[in-house]
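User: Can you model how oxa(dethia)-CoA sits in this protein?
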Amino acid sequence: MSKVLSISILGTGRALPDHVLTNADLENRLDTNDEWIRTRTGIQERRIVAAHESTLTLATDAAKDALDDAGLSASDLDLIICATISSEYPFPATACLVQEALGVTEIPAFDLSAACSGFVYGVIQAAHFVHHGTYRHVLVIGAEAMSRFTDYEDRGTCILFGDGAGAAIIGPAQRDGQGIHHTIMGADGSGARMIICPGGGAKEPASRRTVDERMHFLKMRGREVYRFAVTRMQQVIRDAMAAQGLGPEDVAMIVPHQSNLRIIESATEKLGLPPEKVWVNIDRFGNMSGASIPVALDEVMETGRIKPGDWILLAGFGAGLTWASALIRM
Ligand code: UT7
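Assistant: Here's the modeled complex, given as structure tokens:
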């Protein structure tokens, strides 16, 4: 869709647990090795929540950081959207718990389940609300404690995931032309079971069997997801840029989902993008699902490289299967 949504990103923030889980740590726990992990995924280490941390604590810390960056206080917020697949509880929404933690009441708050695309889905929703004047300041968070749903006996998945949270405050545009100029949101439910946590929901409520069969952990058909991811990552970036007639030289930064360095590199190469214009943090944080893009966005903003009028592109894909992109003029 390419009708301009007039908004600005008023502030961004992030929160990462202190505890670092390295490839060497994983080598000591299961049959894997640093060389395999680095060459197949690009990951060197990830952050993991400690006992006193959770999706809620990360989400709240990232939200506070974004509010600080925007120079706003929690009472300025009109809506909270939390994108997560590792919510604090099956219900209520983590967004409502964040609202409480921020010390505000009444404003709407809800969670959004679109996995690694969740933050981009959330930003697009927020932009519609702000553009149409329904709300002025929307807090969008991507927060995940993936380690709580990761099976550390499954070497095909446990090497990939990490914990973290990122957040952005979406507010009214401050200049002509500022905003989201193109959006893509898509889903293919026929691939819904390719990445799934099969236990603990209405279909398979928690029982001794679901625990014994390790059904409360993420399961992934890695090779199939890889094929989907390579195709979609390239498609959402190419289509977004083509819709605005932008070439690699016109875009200041692509902020892709960080699921596998090979997926990012294949898009970079195929689309002729200069590598320095494609943000990578998977080496340091692994795949943080819905938190990967907002953490990367906050890092990009912190570099000071993004100037008014620059184009940045958020691009994600993930469980659902889902995909999304947002082409933003800063
Ligand atoms: O964010 C959500 C979206 N998720 C993704 O985009 C993830 C997409 N998938 C991937 O990134 C890759 O499929 C993985 C990184 C998960 C796996 O890489 P792969 O190159 O597809 O490996 P594979 O599953 O085809 O396995 C190749 C070999 C197998 O051994 P054999 O059968 O060839 O003897 C695996 O058993 O590598 C073996 N293997 C490992 N070896 C050492 C699988 N995991 C490991 C491991 N360490 N951790």
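A couple of observations from the model: The chain has a mean pLDDT of 97. The longest helix spans residues 222-243.
User: Helpful, thanks.
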